[in-house]
Amino acid sequence: MLVTMKTILKYAEAHHSAIGAFNVTTLEGILGTLEAAEELKQPVILQFAQVHESLIPVSVLGPIMVMLAEQASVPVCVHLDHGEDLDYIKKAMDMGFTSVMYDGSVLDFEKNVANTCMAVEIASAYGVSVEAEIGSMGREEFGSVGAEGEAVASLYTDPDEAKEFVERTGVDALACSFGTVHGLYLTEPKLDFDIISAIREKAQIPVVMHGGSGVSPEDFRRCIQRGVRKINYYTYAAKAGGQAVREQCAAEEDIVYFHDVATWGKEAMKADVREAMKVFASEF
Hints:
Distance between the termini: 26 Å
Number of strands: 8
Order of helices and strands: HEHEHEHEHEHEHEHEHH
Strand order of the largest sheet: 1-2-3-4-5-6-7-8
Radius of gyration: 18 Å
Low-confidence stretches: 141-151
Largest sheet: 8 strands, parallel, barrel
């Protein structure tokens, strides 16, 4: 069943848990994610990042995401991740996405506020939820390694700015920088949990965690305890799919067919997503 992010985050708040938001770039990624959610009977956020347009256009994958979300037996939000321009965001809403992220984090504060306000106004006409970002988790969404595996402390989200940003824009969720980066980690990430607590206290809004791959289950739970309610996840699921295909191909003595490759990848991604969802669903 198709729902908005605002609705699904109310569920997370009531259960003191977080909802997994899984980026997909293939049909196998969509199916693996939805099957894992249905088996666990957990709500899920299915999302497509604008930067993945080079892999497959949202005009091709987006309608499939919406259709399969509508058919799912659990609540599913279909979300645009890291939308960088308003035309692209509107295109996602036109095809049925129930949530969008406007990412103006590379802009100065005032420009980010102004553009986010426009995104919120456009989304309100569609009944669509809006996520925004202040701070920086790096710009990569392809699984490449962040600089030394750590975010730069000077780019961490300021809780007072977060409060002002939310009050001026009216967004439904806020992606914040507190020590995670997109992609793989070279070293263990050092998270500032106090930033999460301060943002929740001052801004009174669900916090979104980007760059979640590689964070330990214990640290995920600590983030959820402090107020994280949406956790973005892509790199490790994609890596699990690729590794499974590599191992299966090496083990096969006969012809390898592409439909087998697709199945191996889907099952491995599904298993990885399922384990992540179990961690995120922990209640406190």
